[in-house]
User: Which sequence fits this backbone?
């Protein structure tokens, strides 16, 4: 009991929003100035697919460090690395050791070198922290199977009797699509250990079913156990003190399960939200400028629960509504209705402008706009190029929105060159996460410049035991891409001023130059009325900086009306624009403009 009091007295220690001056690494007073992540543009990296430096077919930390010149050219100043801790799986979202770098990616010294290289180039690094669950190969679970304390309490166990007739299931599926058998898993090893240690117990009373909401190989952790919470805080503290700038918090909705009056709450429980409030406060004491962003894969209404009553445990949460609404507005062919079923009520037949308004209005006004971080796609979603049919004009249109709206923007590696994923004969495979995480196209060399390995990890069957007869596919995908798309690589697009990559570079540079494009107050964004399919909005900051963003996602020339006639400059094309007497201007097919008025 004494330990319980000490841990939670520290964990829930209140931290004033303006406390702390940072670590001398560019931190700002939180109550007076913007935090560094509000000025950041993040680039998400799947480490295995970014750059391979040792010819083993797997991208590594050294490969990321090697590309600092590219990050400078692109203009990003933040990196998000998907899991790099020791794990038995190809994806790493089930750690077997939180304090070790996975050997596939290099050593801890390689990671320290990467941190140093990034910080030298004014680039921050956040890493995926997956604490809802661990691998069933983690020492904690192995010892829990042997009934060792306190490890047995690190997980959630029940007997078979407790489960019959329950309404447990995967919380992101409908009650009819999932049962308790999807989340409660029988552990034969633990049953045998129970029988050995306690032979008099009835089998039906032995707690040998463990809770695992994602997979039987990923047992959920029990956050009602204070010693487990203590371990998690030590892990987070360790990486922050090593130099990490923050964490992307995977599966943030699912930490605590609660049962209230026979109602089973498996997501967004009160205890879950309270945990993140305490977690954030604790880590701000360790490193005041640490950035915490949550994966709360749901609507903005749900995301807003993680900013309760003006309290802020997380600094931001990904804006899944933006991603889904915007892309669905641009195409009627959005796939994967089952996985995205939560958005069924949002998917209306509306224009791009309507989608932006719908996203904006779904955010409670008392929560800062920058709490919601916009993105187009990530490692769990079909690449945005596939969703938009690979159309360069549409890809430029959505990029223009990404960098001109409030919130810290995130782009997925390869998104800046319109990288897609292979089309496959079997519809089931179209959803396979493997194809969303392919090696990056750098140039026209061997393996598109990814590395010199003979067998790339995506073709190596040992990583995919659940896929019967896994066959190599990457080379065929690469060759087909080179035929269909002359501008397929980073090297080619860097030399083409009209390329998608050049468009990204211009937008990123403008966002960094123009304070109104980074402004986060609700009043900093307003929509221009009556412009139909064209997205048009005003961006302004408190220093009287103003721009109008106009995006035409169609093949037809459109006319829109600005609130004030006059002479403007399009900051993207650097061309002058003069309105008609009524303030109207023509917007070309798939044209994006950021208009700043000429001042005398």
Assistant:
């Amino acid at each position: 009991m004494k330990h319980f009091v000490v841990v939670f007295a520290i964990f829930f220690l209140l931290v004033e929003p303006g406390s702390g001056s940072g670590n001398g690494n560019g931190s700002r007073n939180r109550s007076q100035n913007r935090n560094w992540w509000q000025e950041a543009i993040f680039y998400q990296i799947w480490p295995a697919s970014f750059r391979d430096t040792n010819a083993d077919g797997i991208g590594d930390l050294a490969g990321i460090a090697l590309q600092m010149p590219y990050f400078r050219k692109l203009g990003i100043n933040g990196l998000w690395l998907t899991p790099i801790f020791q794990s038995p799986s190809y994806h790493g979202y089930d750690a077997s050791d939180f304090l070790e770098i996975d050997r596939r990616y290099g050593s801890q010294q390689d990671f320290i070198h990467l941190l140093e290289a990034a910080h030298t180039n004014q680039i921050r690094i956040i890493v995926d922290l997956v604490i809802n669950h661990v691998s069933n190969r983690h020492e904690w679970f192995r010892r829990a199977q042997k009934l060792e304390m306190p490890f047995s309490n690190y997980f959630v166990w029940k007997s078979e009797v407790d489960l019959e007739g329950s309404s447990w299931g995967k919380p992101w599926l409908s009650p009819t699509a999932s049962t308790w058998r999807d989340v409660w898993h029988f552990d034969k090893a633990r049953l045998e250990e129970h029988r050995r240690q306690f032979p008099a117990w009835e089998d039906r009373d032995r707690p040998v079913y463990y809770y695992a909401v994602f997979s039987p190989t990923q047992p959920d952790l029990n956050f009602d156990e204070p010693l487990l919470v203590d371990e998690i805080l030590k892990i987070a503290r360790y990486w922050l003190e090593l130099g990490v700038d923050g964490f992307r918090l995977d599966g943030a909705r699912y930490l605590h399960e609660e049962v209230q009056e026979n109602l089973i709450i498996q997501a967004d429980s009160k205890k879950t939200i309270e945990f993140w409030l305490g977690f954030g406060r604790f880590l701000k004491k360790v490193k005041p400028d640490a950035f915490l962003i949550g994966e709360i894969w749901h609507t903005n209404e749900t995301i807003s629960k993680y900013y309760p009553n003006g309290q802020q445990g997380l600094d931001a949460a990904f804006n899944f509504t933006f991603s889904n609404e915007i892309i669905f507005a641009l195409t009627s062919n959005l796939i994967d209705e089952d996985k995205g079923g939560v958005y069924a009520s949002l998917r209306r037949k509306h224009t791009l402008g309507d989608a932006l308004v719908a996203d904006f209005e779904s955010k409670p006004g008392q929560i800062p706009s920058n709490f919601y971080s916009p993105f187009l796609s990530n490692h769990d979603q079909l690449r945005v190029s596939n969703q938009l049919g690979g159309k360069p004009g549409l890809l430029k249109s959505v990029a223009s929105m990404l960098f001109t709206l409030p919130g810290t923007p995130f782009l997925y590696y390869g998104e800046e060159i319109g990288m897609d994923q292979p089309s496959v004969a079997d519809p089931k495979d179209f959803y396979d996460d493997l194809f969303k995480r392919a090696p990056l196209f750098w140039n026209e060399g061997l393996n598109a410049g990814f590395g010199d390995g003979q067998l790339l990890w995506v073709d190596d069957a040992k990583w995919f035991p659940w896929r019967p007869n896994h066959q190599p596919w990457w080379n065929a995908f690469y060759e087909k891409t080179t035929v269909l798309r002359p501008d397929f690589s980073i090297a080619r697009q860097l030399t083409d001023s009209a390329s998608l990559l050049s468009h990204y570079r211009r937008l990123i540079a403008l966002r960094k130059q123009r304070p109104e494009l980074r402004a986060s107050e609700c009043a900093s964004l307003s929509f221009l009325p009556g412009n139909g399919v064209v997205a048009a909005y005003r961006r302004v900051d408190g220093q009287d900086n103003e721009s109008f963003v106009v995006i035409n996602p169609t093949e037809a020339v459109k006319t829109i009306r600005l609130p004030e006639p006059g002479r403007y400059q399009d900051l993207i094309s650097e061309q002058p624009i003069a309105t008609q007497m009524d303030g109207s201007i023509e917007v070309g097919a798939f044209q994006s403009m950021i208009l700043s008025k000429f001042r005398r």
Observations:
- Residues 1-32, 333-347 have pLDDT under 50 and may be disordered.
- The first helix runs from residue 2 to 11.
- The chain has 18 helices and 23 strands.
- Residues 267 and 446 are 46 Å apart (CA to CA).
